[in-house]
Automatic annotation (TrEMBL), chains A, B:
One Pfam family hit: MmgE_PrpD_C
InterPro entries: MmgE/PrpD_sf, MmgE/PrpD_sf_1, MmgE/PrpD_sf_2, MmgE_PrpD, MmgE_PrpD_C, MmgE_PrpD_N
Homology family: Belongs to the PrpD family.
Residue ranges constituting the MmgE/PrpD N-terminal domain according to the UniProt record: 11-248
Protein name in the entry: MmgE/PrpD family protein
């Protein structure tokens, strides 16, 4: 290891503190806005979920001065609590963005921490966007360094790496120097957690919510001089060696300021695990085939990358939340309903007898020759005939990204679902013009239902 | 693995919910009170540390209704924040109790969560003591199951296992059923974190504070129906397999209700890593030797269990906090000052030129034939003569526990240090009679400085 590689934590702090807005390429800035639009969309969707309701019930009596917005809700909270609730809600359906190489959902931990802060302290829009870009950069680079072993072992990478992203972003907007940025990373390292075992349950959202809250707290503490270790990432008992068997330190320090991780961010068309995107595309294509009558299906096999089986081979599901990571449910619901939105991944859809019957006929077949963004679905009918659909690149994968207009549509649809009556137009405009805003925290008012 | 072993999480929930106060042996109840006295003592010590001051500064503006006490301080906070601050302060100097097999500091995460709750909801003293005992039981059994690999890899076991203890204890006092107790454990699993790399820095305290706060939140959420995974501990991506290479599930389920982990709890005479106890005892004994003049020392070797070297071979220290895990500092300070209290592990003591000079002459020698509670210190003088001291069992180790009166003295001493003018007598009485108290939360008033 070279000296530069060893000092990964310091290299990140140096980069973050020294980064200039004019050095951030236009396409990266644009992608940041897309990511923000998308996170508002999914936060609206999550704002009505029972998990959000319970968390609000519990935290309402424990929260401090109500300066920060919970997207899609009337209640306001202190910034730490709002960051927690918005991150948890935004990631709740796994409908938020995905950094393709790591499967991190990068925006949920970072943006809510920034907006919660920005509602209380006046910052410039360009500074907020810049801080967001840097937070995602750090979060995803750390994720690159520990992948794929970290997630495979059982770490919920969005939560574990997200806390570093939030701490970095908030630290940047607070104007921390390199030493304090390093402390912010150290204070974040003490809070990194979240287990894959919790996926499909409400508990998952605590990990993601804590990533945003913990990152915000980490930076606020560092700002006042709360000190951390010199090498929170690469130290012998630091985050990287503890949570990964062979961390790749060069993935953190290589090409800083040249390569931008947001360029590898993607947005989902469906509210479920990203590995299911091409599977659903294949099923929706098959459904147009007049020969396909669900009642006549004998068996369905889904062929895909080993991650598909590892993360989503889940035949027995009882809740909508579990269904988000069930290939069996995704296949059955999309073939039966001809759609794959929030409603098709609800408890009601899971309990539908037609879906249950079809789900039981679906098997997942692992095939290492498939890239993760591809899938093949083969339906065998009772008469022995077969229908097949191949999707080399699912919608929303890097080769087939959602268009800006599709992300706007997603926001409109999910705002209507989560916050009926809200006009999403001012929010959409405010995000597209964020870098020119003198007070980006003000846009949070556009995410609240109208006062009655 | 038998079925009983596989269902470790459910077995714990079953045990905790079914445990009866009359089944808890008298010596375990007594040890619980000793542990509480000790945690109040160390919380007083931590209450004046700059780390506590910064955390209070940051959280003051973000906290909810001020119902809960921060030990040794006038400020009050919401229960989540108070649990965080008290746990962080109590463990800050590593002067709190130690569960010998795991080196967990068991009380810091658990008791602050319970008392923060008890200041807002009326509970019976015996119920609080019972919940505390069960919380420590769960925390330490999980610790047993992942030791020694978990800490060795870099997990700060007090934080990582503490969150389960706090969730269990609070869940018990809330009267959660087995299903919800399991959810509380699941909600805790999403928050387990804390790295050994942060030891010696302020960041460490965030992990321990979060364990208390997170455990309290986990149980409050579970009470309202916030659901978690079925097998948060032993599931394939659960806490045990993710954070330990060969978790011992039988250590969790074996002898539940028969073996009590509090019986293996110990209390420290010195504010530093527990591995340094016998080292300091040896140095204080050597100091009585008239031949030992620090200025004439040529070299000092400290011989001990491999953990001593692993955790405390730290010749270069610049802060009191680092000094807590430095054998070199512990040796130099105790030989020079003839004492090893908070003052001898302060920044000022670390900067003392006499201590610096002597520290540079100390080497740590690993010897696997030593048990962890033993040490040998050999001083070589400039004339080549040698002085040696062997300590087979340090003070405060299981074979040589502190007496009740010594723990009371420790509380008096640290209350005087952290909260001058406070009369500790009512607090000491209240802890000894806790099981007969109708309102144990009321004793927190005895931990606050008098209103002026």
């Amino acid at each position: 290891m070279t000296a530069a590689v060893v000092a990964a934590s310091a290299a990140l702090a140096h980069f973050v503190v020294g980064s200039r807005w004019e050095d951030v390429p236009e396409d990266v800035r644009h992608e940041a806005k897309r990511s923000l639009l998308n996170i508002f969309a999914t936060a609206f969707a999550g704002s009505r979920d029972p998990a959000t309701g319970i968390a609000i019930e519990v935290l309402a009596g424990l929260s401090g001065p109500a300066t920060a917005t919970v997207i899609g809700r009337r209640e306001r909270f202190d910034p730490l609590t709002a960051a927690f609730l918005n991150a948890a809600a935004a990631n709740l359906h796994d409908f938020d963005d995905t950094h393709h190489p790591t499967i991190i959902h990068p925006t949920a931990p970072v943006a809510p921490a920034l907006f919660a802060l920005a509602e209380g302290r006046r910052v410039a829009g360009a500074d907020l966007l810049h801080a967001f870009i840097l937070g995602v950069e750090v979060e995803c680079r750390i994720g690159n360094a520990v992948s794929p072993g970290h997630y495979r072992r059982g770490w919920h990478i969005t939560a574990t790496c997200g806390v570093f992203g939030a701490a970095t972003a908030v630290g940047r907007i607070l104007g921390l120097d390199e030493r304090r940025t390093l402390w912010a990373l150290g204070n974040a390292s003490a809070q990194a957690g979240g287990l894959v075992e919790t996926l499909g349950t409400m508990s998952k959202s605590i990990g993601v919510g804590n990533a945003a809250r913990g990152g915000l707290l980490a930076a606020l503490l560092a700002e006042r001089g709360y000190s951390g270790p010199e090498r929170p990432l690469e130290g012998p008992r630091g985050f990287l060696p503890v949570t990964a068997d062979a961390p790749d330190l060069a993935a953190i320090t290589g090409g800083l300021g040249g390569r931008w991780e947001l360029r590898r961010n993607t947005h989902k068309p469906y509210p479920c695990g990203v590995v299911l995107n091409p599977v659903i595309d294949a099923c929706l294509a098959l459904r147009d085939d007049p020969d396909l009558v669900p009642g006549r299906v004998a068996a369905i096999t889904v062929h895909g990358h080993p991650l598909l089986r590892e993360r989503a081979d889940r035949p027995a599901v009882t809740t909508g939340r579990e269904a988000q990571v069930s290939a069996q449910h995704a296949v059955a619901a999309s073939l039966i309903f001809g759609a794959a939105g929030i409603d098709e991944f609800s408890d009601a859809a899971v309990a539908d007898p037609r879906v249950q019957a079809l789900r039981a006929k679906v098997a997942v077949v692992e095939d290492p020759t498939f890239p993760v963004e591809a899938a093949r679905v083969v339906v065998t009918l009772e008469d022995g005939s077969r229908l097949a659909s191949d999707v080399p690149h699912g919608r929303g994968t890097p080769m087939r990204p959602l268009a800006d207009g599709e992300i706007e549509d997603k926001l409109r649809r999910l705002a209507a679902h989560g916050c009926p009556g809200l006009d999403p137009a001012p929010l959409i405009d405010a995000v597209w013009s964020l870098d020119r805003s003198p007070d980006p925290g003000a846009l949070m008012a556009f995410t609240r239902p109208a006062e009655t």
